Amino acid sequence: MTEPSTAAANAAAPTSTRPRVLSGMQPTDALHLGNYLGALRQWVARQDQQDALFCVVDLHALTVPEAVDPADLRHRSRAVAALYFACGLDPERNVVFLQSHVPEHAECSWILMCTTPLGWLYRMTQFKAKAEGRDSVGAGLLTYPVLQAADILLYDADEVPVGEDQVQHVELTRDIAIRFNRLFGDTFVLPKAVIPTSGARVMGLDDPTVKMSKSLAAERPGHAIGLLDDPKVLKKTIMSAVTDSGREFRPEHASPGVRNLIAILASLQGEEDTVVAERFVGRGYGDLKKSVLEAVLEAVTPIRERFEALMGDPAELDRILAQGADAARSRATSTLARVKAAVGVGT
Ligand code: TYM
Predict the structure, then answer these.
(1) Is 0.70 topped by the overall pTM?
(2) Is the pLDDT of residue 248 over 90?
(3) 164-to-38, 226, 227, 231, 285 alpha-carbon distances in Å
């Protein structure tokens, strides 16, 4: 990857030397272990070393309008923000906000849409997967990554911490920024995706050939490890995870399901997969599943307790989100002014 273009980086130099970071999650269905290991955990782990903003991308949740229940969306957006905090994001050290509270995202997205070739959007694997089999899809499903680009570029983000499935969107963001800078002069900082060393792609427990996803979790019990699932549900999901017809663990013959369980355990315990695998050689899959369950319960129990406390005080949550939106907005307005000046509108 190339370095950020110097003029734009200087124009937008953050006041501190810490990298500027932005990331977000959709408030679709309940968040799962993949969201935690792939994204949230690294957001929290590095919060002292970065100048970070995290949003709940509620406008992105509108791209499949059939699935939108307005009251539910409002609730979920707040619940996802509460989960960010429950996982350890500190609102004093990070700017946390709902995307729709900062209208500059939609405005910047329009300008970027005008410079983004359609072919780039048709190539996105997430678009292809979501559009497949549907008679008709909204234009928002196709232009979704341009709104994501606006989320990132509006804050001059150097780094975007995400799971592996979002790398393509971050690379597209970079391409959109390069093209815009070429057409209108250095305006945007070029961001790069930052992927965790473990947990970047957690697979489904019922089908280890597909990644753990919120949409499949909503349809298929046993697919995902929900961060807020009841311990009994977690036990059922983990103990019935797909393995293979063997009885005991042999690393050289491990099936994708078994490898996924090893990877989850290793990631939760902060160890290498091979080290964890070594411990289970010759032991039954039941033992492996019990260890995964214990590690999951240890990670999610305090998260669930803090989440419940935060959701019990909606006024305080709204206050923190309003403060986050103000802080985000003051940064977004200055970038958007730069963008509008570059293209000759708004003045
Ligand atoms: P979303 O909401 O699908 O996922 C949120 C984050 O969780 C990661 N993730 C996973 N990581 C490991 N294993 C998995 N099975 C797994 N499933 C999800 C995702 O990579 C992501 O980091 N388009 C984005 C939301 C978005 C965004 C942004 C992200 C909108 N604007 C700007 C970063 C920056 C999405 O749908 O993520």
Answers:
(1) yes
(2) no
(3) 8, 19, 19, 28, 27
